[in-house]
Structures are given as structure tokens and as C-alpha cells.
Amino acid sequence: MRTFSVKPVGTVHADEGSFWIEIAGPFRPALKGLEGFSHIQVLWWGDRTDTEERRSETVCTKPYTRGPETIGIFATRSPVRPNPIALSAAPVLGVDPAAGIVRVAYIDADDGTPVLDIKPYLPCADRVRDVEVPAWSSHWPEWYEENEGFDWAAEFNFEE
């Protein structure tokens, strides 16, 4: 089987409700033109779950309170997976290409998380009109903006 090597392009920072992505020096020119996009897709590495044991997990036991007893990793958004790559849509508050900073309203990655790539959110490529989800998740918010106030903690069975 082929293997691949990835190099982080930046780091997530989170501090008292403020979130930003710091892009490493050599990659800062790649921020040119990102201004004007309201949202970005951020690919990041789940480094806190990156162990051989966790990479071999293909099924998890009841990760969702209303979900099935077992579910395949590919049917979850868990960072525990064969390659701990995560994807987050993030609202852009500002871009400073010279400083290598992308300020975002929120991102579900921890402070210090390695960023693998950033792509602009494009409705023609990233939005789908007729989406279907399993019954156990059909009560979840339909839109990103509706997440505020939704009790996400009640939806997951987090490991201690």
C-alpha cells in the first residue's frame, strides 16, 4: 500500500473565545485572494488522537446518543480514524496575508492543532440541495448558523 507524507501549513490558535489560524511563513503568499470569502474549509490533523491503536479502529460503539449501537468510522465525523484528518467549515472574520493570520469566528479544533490545508467555501462545490441523513441525526440543525444554542453535548457519548 502507498503511503503519503503531509506537511502542516499552519496552526490553529484558540484563546478565550477567539480563534485564528497562523500560516507558516513559506505558505503566506497562498493567502492572497482569500479576502472576500465569507467561509473557508479547513483540513486539520487530529494529532491528539493519532495513535496506531486509534488508527486501526474501524467501528465505534454508540458515539451518538440516538444512533445505532455500532457504527463505522466513515459514518462519523470523529477524529479517530485511519488517517486523523478532520474538516471544518469556518466563518472568516479577517485575513492578514502579511502576518499570515486568518481570523475565524469558530473552529472545532484545539489550540495548537496542525492545519494541513485551507480551501475557500464555494457554494457551487460545497453545498448540496437534496441531502439525506439517517433518522438518528435528522433533528440536528440543517444549517451551520443554526448550531448556536443546539445542545450538541447531549448528542454524543464522549469517551472519558
From TrEMBL:
**UniProt xrefs under InterPro entries:** TrmO-like_N (IPR023370), YaeB-like (IPR040372), YaeB-like_sf (IPR036413), YaeB_N_sf (IPR036414)
**Coiled coil start-end:** none
- Keyword terms, alphabetized: Methyltransferase, S-adenosyl-L-methionine, Transferase
- Classification via PROSITE patterns: TSAA_2
Which segments constitute the TsaA-like domain? 6-130
Q: Which Pfam families match?
A: TrmO_N (PF01980)
Biological process according to GO: methylation
Q: Which SUPFAM superfamilies match?
A: YaeB-like
- GO MF term set: methyltransferase activity
Which superkingdom, per the lineage?
Archaea
PANTHER family per the UniProt record, alphabetical: TRNA (ADENINE(37)-N6)-METHYLTRANSFERASE
Spell out the family assignment given in the record's similarity comment.
Belongs to the tRNA methyltransferase O family.
**Name the record gives this protein:** SAM-dependent methyltransferase
Species for this entry: Methanoculleus caldifontis
